[in-house]
Structures are given as C-alpha cells and as structure tokens.
Amino acid sequence: MDYYAGCDLHSNNTVIGLVDEEGKRIYQRRVKNSIPLVWDELEPFKDNIKGVVVESTFNWYWLVDGLMEVGLKLHLANPSAIKQYEGLKHSDDYHDAFYLADLLRLGILPEGYIYPKEQRALRDLLRKRLMLVRHRTAHILSFQSLYYRHTGCKISSMKIKSLREEEVKGFFDDPHVALASQSHVSVIAFLASRIEKIERQALRVMRPLAEYGRLKTVYGIGDILALTIMLETGPIRRFPKVGNYASYCRCVPAGRYSNDKMKGLNNRKNGNAYLSWAYIEAANFAKRCYPSARAFYQRKLAKTNKIVAIKALAHKLARASYFVLKDQVDFNPEKLFG
Predict the structure, then answer these.
(1) 3-112, superfamily in CATH?
(2) Cβ distance 18 to 40 under 8 Å?
(3) Which helix (H) or strand (E) holds 165?
C-alpha cells in the first residue's frame, strides 16, 4: 500500500503525519528538528512512501535537503496558494500535517519550486547584498538629514560615500553631532566594502555563462540586475508561458473585477519580491537611458500615474527577458517597442 507524508515544520519541531492511498491516517508523531530523528520516524515506511510534503516556511532548507539525500521524493507546498476549508471549527499541527499529505494524495497540492542546493547559496548571497544596500541607503539618508538640519545645506549621496571619518569631524561644532555623523560614515564605508566583496564573488561565478551576457542586452539590465534575475528565475523552462513568468515577477495586476468594477484584490504578494525589485530598477534605468523605453513610459504616464507607468515598463522588460532566456537570443528592442 502506498503512503503519503506531510510535515508541518516549526522553528524547533516537526509534526509528521502519514496517510494511506485511501486517506486513512496511519501514523503521527512530533519530533525535534533533526534529520536523524525525522528519518527514524519515516524509515519503517520508506519503501511505500510515494512522496513527502514540506511547507515552504522560513527554515525548510535543512529538512528538504536531508530527506532528499536519503532518497525520498520531496514536494514543497506553497502556503499562500493552500486554502483551508472555511467551515473548519478546530485544527492543530497534526491536522495540518495530514492535510498536506491529503493534498498530495489527491494530486491537488499547490507546489513551490525546490531551488537546487548547489545554486541556492549564491542566490541567498545576492539577497544578502540587497539587504546591505538598503541598510547603507538608510544611513546615507540619515546623514543627509542630519547635515541639512545642522548646516542648512544639502549634500549628495555620492559625496557622503567618499567621506572619511576624519573629514566629518570638522563639519559640526557639537561633539555629539560629530560622533553621530562619524558613526554613519564608518558604517557606510564598512557596508560598501562588504557589498563590493559580494559582487566580486558573484560576478566571478556568473560572468562565464552565456545567459548572463544575453540578459545584459536587455534595456536597463546591468551586472547586478542580470545576476539577480538569473539566480531568482532559475531554469526558465519551469514557466510554461510568458504570462506565468510575468505573474511570478509580480508584474501583472492583482485586481478582482465584476461588471467592470473592482471588487477587491487577489494575492498581490504571490511571486518573487526580488524579481519585482530587479525589473522595477531596470525600468527606471531604461527610461532614463533609452529613447524608445522613455517614449513608452511617457505614453503610459499620460494616461495614469508614475507607479503604474513604471510597472508597465517593468512588465515589458520581464516579458522580453523571458524570451531572451528561453530562446537563447539577444534582446531585440524593435520586437518590444516597435
């Protein structure tokens, strides 16, 4: 008899539930987060287990990788696409584990993509870079505000990035303000060095790839954006149509309409936030540097607002990137903008 396993994963424990091919609950257990402990529970059933479902929580890497290494077939559940029965009165961790197993048994499990372990670390490294860039930007903006408050003058972000602690000390008479400004400059310099180190390491790996060079032919996409798009997209063949990819990049509207009236929003956060950021950045670069992209943006802007216009341009670039990656060709602006 075939079995299906569901794992309700938490920060410090995992709840395991097994059902047979008829949906009967045959086993349940809560164990601490440890591959040997989880495997000890599943091993007696290993020859009959058709698949194991793990919910895509913040800490799924260790469990999925560990169970795949012992030969089990893993499925990553997409929690944002799983809808519980609305009439349900009571549920707990065991119910959730069995529910995941039942979805797999019935063939209706909304699955997420299990990114290959070999490339996952580099993708996460690029995500760390983005976090550091945002922290650096926060310190730059805070320094600009402090400088303007105490001097009445503006200072550019490029100037701030080039400052050293010794220079800043003479900008302010108050020693407390001087110390605060030196702290900002010190942190900005440190973050810049870490960001540069991450970029060098990532570029060393990705530059030899043909897809990387082709992506850079798309308007607005440079070194870092090409890296981000490649690593966040993964194998382009997992998206059967260009619309699936555009939706994954959060470049399509999430409105729910009836009789030409908006009745609400669907799950607008379903997709990849990093790809959404990358294509918005590319669109901002493209409208500044390329006349055809700027003309498209201005036509949209005449009919709507800046946010919608830049999102429309990002959508166009995402669609173009899909075909560049899928067909292994360079970007052709005439096909995109006419």
Answers:
(1) Ribonuclease H-like superfamily/Ribonuclease H (3.30.420.10)
(2) no
(3) helix 165-169
Q: Using an 8 Å Cβ cutoff, are 15 and 25 in contact?
A: no
Q: What order of strands is seen across the sheet that includes strand 111-112?
A: 25-32, 13-20, 3-9, 49-55, 74-77, 111-112
Give me the residue spans of the domains in the chain: 3-112, 119-206, 211-337
Closest CA relative to residue 323, chosen from 313, 332, 310: 332
Two tokens at 79? Answer: 């929690």
Per DSSP, the three-state class of 96 is helix
pTM value is: 0.87
Per-residue pLDDT tens over the stretch 107-136: 999 999 999 998 899 999 999 999 999 999
Report whether 17 contacts 101 (CB < 8 A).
yes
H or E element, residue 123: helix 117-151
Asked whether the predicted pLDDT for residue 89 surpasses 90, the reply is no
Residue 113 contacts residue 76 (beta carbons within 8 Å): yes
**Residue 20 phi/psi, 5° resolution?**
-90, -175
DSSP 70: T
